[in-house]
Amino acid sequence: MKNVPEIKLKLKPAYEEHRHELNAAIQSVLDGGQYILGEEVNAFETEFSRFIGVSQGIGVASGTDALVLSLKACGIKHGDEVITVPFTSVATAIVIQSCGAKPFFIDIDDSCTIDINKLETFLKRNISKKTKAILPVHLYGYAVDMEAITSLAKQYGLWVIEDACQAHGALFNKRRVGSWGDIAAFSFYPTKNLGAFGDAGMVVTNDAQLSEKIRALRQYGWKTKNISESMGINSRMDDIQAAVLRVKLKYLDQDNQRRIKLAEVYHQGLEDSPVIRPSIFADLRHIYHQYAIRSSDRDGLKEFLAKHGIVTQILYPLPIHLQPAYRGKFDSFGGLETSEKTAREILSLPIYPQMGKEEAQIVIETINHWFPKE
Q1: Which end of the chain is more exposed for a tag (fewer CB within 10 A), N or C?
Q2: How far apart are CA 201 and CA 60, in angstroms?
Q3: Contact 192, 83 (CB under 8 A)
């Protein structure tokens, strides 16, 4: 293996290309002296909801809070069940539990998103009065089949709460993720395609009543200051994060297109490799928050890449239903074998807008050196 190329792939600062614009935006907030739910937050709420294609945007403190508040606004409560997937961030289970409800797991398919066929079968055979909502997760920037989800939800009288925390700008049938369900949650954690300089999140919806509920719930249940009309929480977006996000939003489509171009390089370069590449379909735009391959010898490949200076990630190493805190506590339908197998095989390769095609080629060459020639 002495001829294997070596490279240390380092994330370049996400702010570098727009340093002066970002500095000016932050300085404007500092000079203005309004740091929480101010003019920058209001402007970003308008701009981001317009980007998604909905009428309402409500800035909150994190993507996790965005999901919690979305569930609460839809009336999810103790004793209810919310359909979702086990192969996702554990936050998906945490937010459902925080409302006193329980997640009900449906397996994923090869796209790493909810298996529509299994979901439909469950709803036909086993849906109960406890089932109140579907929480589809647009994992890795890959859009769930939202036409199928919304059709099934309408048929069975269920809320649709989109977890779009990894899918800023992803499309299904030329319509942005986050605009399909009753309500949707986004995260602006710094590593996201649209990332702040700290924690932040947003709820988006076309439902004015849900929007009004969220606005109250994010700040102690206030409609009038210091008068709590409902039992809310403290989850307010700060203006520095909003100012940063307003700058970065202008370049999001451009940055996503860079990710797509890099994914195309990976996809072509790994065509003859034994690894399983992400699924590609004509009716959606994957925005590659992660470029996640699968390999039966994932751990060996990860170690080999690390030895040659290429840092990879495993998202996620253990499905929620196998996590020590949650094992045996939640119900499921039809088996969760695909989630378990995917967790053993999944590996995210380096991908970010500032990465060059030459660096992607080196990752490809290194992977191809790992697998013996047939």
Answers
A1: C
A2: 5
A3: no
Contact (Cβ atoms closer than 8 angstroms) between residue 93 and residue 319: no
Taking alpha carbons only, the member of 172, 225, 222, 181 closest to residue 203 is: 181
3-class DSSP state of 2: coil
Backbone angles phi, psi at 98, to 5 degrees: -65, -20
Residue pair 193/168 in contact by the 8 Å Cβ criterion: yes
Structure token digits, residue 257: 């297109």
Residues of the chain with pLDDT under 50: 1-2, 11
Measured in degrees and rounded to the nearest 5, phi and psi for residue 223 equal -105, -40
d(CA 12, CA 132): 43
The length of the chain, given as a count of residues = 374
pLDDT at residue 1, rounded to an integer:
46
Under 8 Å between Cβ of 221 and 231:
yes
Q: What is the pLDDT of residue 13?
A: 56
Instruction: Name the region of 79 (left: φ>0; alpha: ψ -120 to 50; beta: rest).
Output: left
CA 333 to chain centre: 24
Domains, the chain: 16-106+113-249 (3.40.640.10), 252-370 (3.90.1150.10)
The distance in angstroms from the start CA to the end CA of the chain is: 16
**Cα dist from 219 to 70, 95, 226, 266, whole Å:** 14, 18, 10, 45
Give pLDDT, residue 314: 98
**Does 15 sit behind a cis peptide bond, omega within 30 degrees of 0 on the bond before it?**
no
Tell me how many degrees the CA angle 24-26-30 measures, rounded to the nearest 5: 110
Q: Are 40 and 242 in contact (CB under 8 A)?
A: yes
Whole-number Å distance between alpha carbons of 164 and 187? 8
In whole angstroms, give the CA distance from residue 59 to residue 86.
27
